[in-house]
Automatic annotation (TrEMBL):
Gene: aat
Segments passing through the bilayer: none
Enzyme kind, highest EC tier: transferase
Lineage: Bacteria, Pseudomonadati, Pseudomonadota, Gammaproteobacteria, Enterobacterales
Gene3D superfamilies: Leucyl/phenylalanyl-tRNA-protein transferase, C-terminal domain (3.40.630.70), Leucyl/phenylalanyl-tRNA-protein transferase, N-terminal domain (3.30.70.3550)
SUPFAM superfamilies in UniProt: Acyl-CoA N-acyltransferases (Nat) (SSF55729)
Catalytic reaction(s) noted: L-phenylalanyl-tRNA(Phe) + an N-terminal L-alpha-aminoacyl-[protein] = an N-terminal L-phenylalanyl-L-alpha-aminoacyl-[protein] + tRNA(Phe); N-terminal L-lysyl-[protein] + L-leucyl-tRNA(Leu) = N-terminal L-leucyl-L-lysyl-[protein] + tRNA(Leu) + H(+); N-terminal L-arginyl-[protein] + L-leucyl-tRNA(Leu) = N-terminal L-leucyl-L-arginyl-[protein] + tRNA(Leu) + H(+)
Any one of the GO BP annotations: protein catabolic process
Molecular-function GO term, any one: leucyl-tRNA--protein transferase activity
Organism for this UniProt entry: Serratia odorifera DSM 4582
Protein name, as recorded: Leucyl/phenylalanyl-tRNA--protein transferase
Record-listed E.C. numbers: 2.3.2.6
Family listed: Belongs to the L/F-transferase family.
PANTHER family tied to this protein: LEUCYL/PHENYLALANYL-TRNA--PROTEIN TRANSFERASE, LEUCYL_PHENYLALANYL-TRNA--PROTEIN TRANSFERASE
Length: 241
């Protein structure tokens, strides 16, 4: 297999099944971060990830890390933390501040460069990308952002400036998203942080099947209106299946 170079004259992507095994999921190179191309990628289970100043790389890893909202896990220590209700959590109140803060994390590199920030801000302005903000007083201390695909949400990045802030962002979003009929959150690649919160791996083929079904589901517009999110329930609802 070889990496496909994208045409500047077409939004077509190769099949995710053609992605490399090493590095896992690398599928294509080139193209741009225009809104139509980004949306075409997400609709096919593909996302960009690359270093600023280098060619854009497009990925679709196998297996895929996902979080079913009703499977979210709250440790005993995190439940104790939540009972103190230390944060105020909002949706779509300051997308640009959230993505800028995600770009500042020194331990994870600087892949969210200015080009990426501009591209996702445009997706936000078009109503496709959304942010969760965690506030301590008037200070932004955590958050996350991603791209909606019907009843599936493609999580892109999160940040914390104080203990448990990104956890609170994700858990509050799970509760909100599920309440409006959201069924699956794409975490891309499993890591220790998301694994502790209930994320798990599924085969790419299964993920693509879920994506094809869930992206056709339309959630109520109220789901994405700027709003305060209710406090996270200490006990998540029991799975129905």
């Amino acid at each position: 297999m070889r990496i496909v170079k994208l045409s500047s004259h077409s939004l077509a992507f190769p099949s995710p099944e053609a992605a490399l095994r090493d590095p896992n999921g690398l599928l294509a190179i080139g193209g741009d971060l225009s809104a139509p191309r980004l949306l075409a990628a997400y609709q096919r289970g593909i996302f960009p990830w690359y270093s600023p100043g280098e060619a854009i790389l497009w990925w679709s890893p196998d297996p895929r890390a996902v979080l079913f909202p009703d499977e979210r896990h709250l440790s005993r220590s995190f439940k104790r933390f939540l009972r103190g209700n230390p944060f105020r959590i909002t949706l779509n109140h300051n997308f640009s501040a959230v993505i800028a803060a995600c770009a500042e994390r020194p331990l994870e590199g600087t892949w969210i460069g200015p080009e990426v920030q501009r591209a996702y801000l445009q997706l936000h302005q078009l109503g496709h990308a959304h942010s969760v903000e965690v506030w301590q007083g008037e200070q932004l201390v955590g958050g996350m952002y991603g791209v909606a695909q019907g009843a599936l949400f493609c999580g892109e990045s999160m940040f914390s400036r104080t203990d448990n802030a990104s956890k609170c962002a994700l858990m509050a979003f799970c509760q909100h998203f599920s309440a409006f009929g959201g069924e699956l959150i794409d975490c891309q690649v499993l890591n220790a942080h998301t694994s502790r919160l209930g994320a798990r791996e599924i085969p790419r083929r299964q993920f693509l099947q879920q994506l094809s079904y869930l992206q056709r589901r339309t959630l109520a517009s109220e789901c994405w209106m700027p709003q305060a999110l209710p406090p996270q329930q200490v006990e998540p609802p029991s799975p129905t299946n």
